[in-house]
Amino acid sequence: MLTEERYNFILEQLTTNGVIKSQELMLEMNCSESTIRRDLATLEEQGKLVRVHGGAKRVYTIEQEQTLSEKSVKNVHYKKKVAELAASLVKADDVIFLDAGSTTFFMVPFLKGKNVRIVTNAVQHALLLADQDNDVLLIGGKLKNTTQAIVGATSLEQLSRYRFTKAFLGMNGIDREYGFTTPDPEEATVKQQAFANSSKVYVLADETKFNKVTFVKVCNIEDAVIITDHLNPKNYESYFTKTTILEAKK
Asked: In terms of CB atoms within 10 Å, which end of the chain has fewer, N or C?
């Protein structure tokens, strides 16, 4: 096996398992302990893993939050496909929570004409929903300027009184080990409250959100259904075994 092939195999194993053992790598790749030791040392120097006794573990960085305008122009085609699939799950007489976020925003046009009640903490979402004559309730609280989301104690108190048939949440990071994460603690608590009060929870995310970790954990990966764009089962096999994933077609 060529050096680059070994590197790729090691990193794929780390993505799937989080931790790898040197002995297992020797058997899988049919190479010596000294070769594995050199490979792990090189990958550690490149910042791609951390060596531990008897093997290595995956390294991850804490992703920083982008503004709503920055997120809204990225991966638009895939976000619209994800949003369309998510909206198709909304049925007559549902009461749904629609989270702030660029991907959930693309759900709004697909909700036009549906006989549902929509509760949201997103100012931009609420304005467009109102223009479509949807039955919409915008919760009160503190406005977060960067994402235009309503957060804080007032929003949590109000949300605690509501119950939803479905919640559609946005996330900044999806990781097999660390679950669903978001950068801001106040937004995380709103998501957690909506999660707790919903019969069914869906997380909308394009493929770029996978294998990323941000500051605050919202819930475990098995706690929600993921709606995403096309995923390569070979690269994301471990996710499919942990939770239900609905894939939007291209």
From this structure: C
Number of alpha carbons in the 13 Å side-chain half-sphere of residue 66: 14
* pLDDT surpassing 60 at residue 71: no
Lowest-pLDDT range, 58-67, 83-92, 238-247? 58-67
Cα–Cα separations (whole angstroms), residue 45 to 5, 55, 222: 18, 15, 33
* Model pLDDT, residue 126: 97
Q: Identify the DSSP state of 163.
A: -
Query: Could you tell me where the DSSP H helices lie in the chain?
Result: 3-17, 22-29, 33-45, 68-72, 76-88, 102-105, 123-131, 153-159, 185-196, 233-242
Give the integer Cα–Cα distance in Å for 124 and 204. 17
Using DSSP bridges, classify how beta strands 179-182 and 216-219 pair: parallel, antiparallel or unpaired: antiparallel
pTM of whole model > 0.85?
Answer: no
Rounded to whole angstroms, how far apart are CA atoms 143 and 52? 44
- Amino acid letter, residue 156: L
* 116/90 Cα distance (integer angstroms): 8
How far CA 95 is from CA of 98, 190, 197, 236, in Å, comes to 10, 17, 11, 32
CA–CA–CA angle 210, 212, 169 (5° rounding): 65
Task: Give the C-alpha distances (Å, rounded to integers) separating 210 from 41, 61, 63, 107, 173.
Answer: 26, 13, 12, 20, 6
Per-residue pLDDT band for 76 (boundaries 50, 70, 90) equals: confident
Per-residue pLDDT band at 64 (split at 50, 70, 90) = low
β-bridge partners, 56: 20, 51
